[in-house]
Amino acid sequence: MKDVYAVIMAGGRGERFWPLSTDQLTKPFIPLLGPKSLIQEAVDRLHPLIPNERTLISIGKVHEEVARAQLPMIPPENFIIEPIGRDTSACLAFCALHLERRDQDSMLLALPADHFVGDPEAYRRTLAKGIENLPGTNGIVFGITPERPETGYGYIQAEKPTEASAAWPVTRFVEKPDAVKAAEYIKSGTYFWNSGIFLWQNRVLLELFRLHMPQTHERLCKLRSLLSRSGVDDEIFQVFSSIERISIDFGIMEKAGGFGLIPANFGWDDIGSWAALARALPADENANIFQGSHAAVDANGCIVYSDKGLIAVFGASDLVVVQAKGNVLVCPKDRASDLKRLIRALDQPLATK
Amino acid sequence: MKDVYAVIMAGGRGERFWPLSTDQLTKPFIPLLGPKSLIQEAVDRLHPLIPNERTLISIGKVHEEVARAQLPMIPPENFIIEPIGRDTSACLAFCALHLERRDQDSMLLALPADHFVGDPEAYRRTLAKGIENLPGTNGIVFGITPERPETGYGYIQAEKPTEASAAWPVTRFVEKPDAVKAAEYIKSGTYFWNSGIFLWQNRVLLELFRLHMPQTHERLCKLRSLLSRSGVDDEIFQVFSSIERISIDFGIMEKAGGFGLIPANFGWDDIGSWAALARALPADENANIFQGSHAAVDANGCIVYSDKGLIAVFGASDLVVVQAKGNVLVCPKDRASDLKRLIRALDQPLATK
Predict the structure, then answer these.
(1) What is the mean pLDDT of residues B83-110?
(2) CA distance A321 to B321
(3) Which of A18-22, A110-114, A222-226 has the lowest mean pLDDT?
(4) In angstroms, what separates the C-alpha of A267 from chain B's closest C-alpha?
(5) In the predicted model, what is the mean pLDDT of residues A44-69?
(6) B348 CB within 8 Å of a chain A CB
(7) Extended strands (E) in chain B
(8) What residues contact A304, with CB distance under 8 A and at least 6 apart?
(9) In whole angstroms, what is the distance from residue A135 CA to residue B67 CA?
(10) Contact A224, A103 (CB under 8 A)
(11) Per-residue pLDDT tens for B169-204?
(12) d(Cα A29, Cα A13) in Å, to the nearest integer?
């Protein structure tokens, strides 16, 4: 697998885990589930499939210091600093440009930095199977076998192949469904959660940009020539910031065909909100989840996280209570995924106040 | 009124306002309702009726430093340090002994330190009326005209006098009633809330101890002789700590007769719990009470107090959320008066953890 490079994407804002996450310290850099941060876990779980030398870290300028500090095992030249956040299509295009300068014949494995993976060995087996099946496709997507009629994820429909070892030909990508549709999807057995983990031959990915995002591809050609020069950071910034802000799913994957899907079952969760911690952490006998110093009397189904100081919950049910960086969040569990609404009400920029 | 001495009682534990209050910093010493602490307000609102020179502060050893620091205007010799907490009967008896050494012919006005008074001028007028009516009684009690069928307070029944300027002869003291009885009390027009504010001729108070708490009176006689000597702190402690632990209400007021009641309407509240703040502080348009840095989206009827750092409440109703001294409390408003249950579950002694 010496031609496979992992790109761990750790851009994005720190909204969903406020007050623990901020724009300066976003979810990937937080030890949400244990002693290591999510991005440290993401790097570790690639071993021995992909070594640190072929692991690239895509981040914004604001995260560079913390990323380098948390990942001293990653070679310094493997940190790819995005000039500005422009969603995943620009992010991956920029990484593809960097990668073609290093290795003309490489594969690019795109990995979000903030996932929970319960079974790292199954994870590596699944990725390896994807790499094996890449030839003859436009790319491989990893589809999580759905465990519940989740309405918070996008789905991918694919056809079951005759051979168990083969990838499933992708039929279509579908948006977050309503509950009724989600239930149908699960029943069908041919729908998977879109994990956001993708694999392409690097030159094929760039070709997909040419075909499906021609305006972006134009900018990529300019950037390619700029990247071979030095002292042109301002020009790079100018060109990069004019790239369309769109996810790789919308920009490429939903438009192009020829993708193969590898079904995945490695205890995946995208830990999208405080409430999702309940799926990844053990609960007490009253279904409470605790991280940090706490006291609970007559508390049920609460998620309590403290980075310092005691949180006492008394006579409360199904609340998220977080104390982090000296700030406190209290909201019902079923509102936690909507936290952006609260964040919008706080003063910008999003930071510890 | 030169013979009236106020005794502001500030003993007691810091349970009901945890985590802001602790055994080291109890409710009277906290600026719960504004820039001044409750005890500072209690001293201030006596002016000009009773000057600082005749205001005594009764506290435990553990509060001496903070009390002296907060009340530099009170003469040092006016701080009466209780050897150990033994409820209000021992507290007031000890103060009466101190007072008789200063002024044989004085009156003792007992004031809890932690009350809210909305109308200080009416407060002073009411106290003055009590002082006028003291002669010919065993003591004056100040009865709050009830505003609601409160089940959390004791009541005092009294007979309406023919003269408006006279005190109402007290019929009886009654325990905290149930809701049905409380409603009857209110309707009758002859029941008042027991404010815990009492006035006696100091020598009469000591005589009441002799008649109704003879064992305590024996100890008082020993203490009287010890107080005239120096270097006998240990003996004072021994004798004081053997005094029965009982409130002045149970020990004296419910047993003795001959008390007069002055009806009081000065916006009184005993601010007994976090939830009671809602009666003393202004609410926003969604009935939320905020003190300190906060953000609220879709929050209703919440009480939010932060001594530092932001508290964000999102989509929650009728919660008490407090951040103080680095610790956090979350509980429904209707459980706030039962906070002792939570405190018992925390490690002893009660302190910032």
Answers:
(1) 95
(2) 10
(3) A18-22
(4) 30
(5) 96
(6) no
(7) 4-9, 55-60, 79-82, 107-112, 116-117, 139-144, 155-158, 168-174, 191-201, 259-264, 268-269, 289-291, 294-297, 303-306, 311-314, 319-324, 327-332
(8) A288, A289, A290, A291, A292, A294, A296, A311, A313, A321, A322
(9) 80
(10) no
(11) 999 999 999 999 999 999 999 999 999 999 999 999
(12) 12
B11-B15-B20-B22 Cα dihedral, nearest 10 degrees:
60
Both tokens of residue A298?
């007559």
What HEC string does B18-65 produce? CCCCCCCCCHHHCCCCCCCCHHHHHHHCCCCCCCHHHEEEEEEHHHHH
| CB < 8 Å to B332, chain A | 315-316
The DSSP line for A83-113 is SS--HHHHHHHHHHHHHHHH-TT-EEEEEET
- The one-letter code for the residue type at A248 is I
Query: How many other β-carbons are positioned within 10 Å of the β-carbon of residue B211?
Result: 12
What one-letter code names the amino acid at A42? A
Please list, in sequence order, all residues whose beta carbon lies within 8 angstroms of the beta carbon of residue A154, skipping any fewer than 6 positions away.
A173, A174, A175, A176, A193, A194, A249
Residue A342: both structure tokens together? 């609260």
* In the predicted structure, residue B36 carries a pLDDT above the cut 90: yes
Partners of A297 on chain B (C-beta within 8 Å) are 341-342, 345
d(CA B254, CA B104): 26
Reported pTM: 0.81
Nearest CA in chain B to A347: B295
Please name the residue that has the structure tokens 């099946």.
A133
- A291 in B contact zone (CB under 8 Å): no
Closest CA to A134 of A15, A321, A270, A261: A261
A-B contacts (CB, under 8 Å): 110
B306 inside 8 A of chain A by CB: yes
How far, in Å, CA of B158 to CA of B140, rounded? 12
Report yes or no: B93 and B216 within 8 Å, Cβ to Cβ.
yes
Distance CA B243, CA B87 (A): 10
Please say whether the beta carbons of B78 and B55 come within 8 A. Answer: yes
Cβ contacts (< 8 Å) between A306 and chain B: which residues? 328
Helix (H) or strand (E) holding A211: helix A202-212
Contacts of A332 in chain B (CB under 8 A): 315-316
Minimal Cα–Cα distance from A297 to chain B, Å?
A: 6
Q: Please list the alpha-helical segments (H only) found in A228-298.
A: 233-241, 248, 277-280
Token representation of residue B260: 């007069």
Smallest Cβ–Cβ distance between B295 and the set A306, A312, A345 belongs to A345
Q: Is A314 an interface residue toward B (CB < 8 Å)?
A: yes
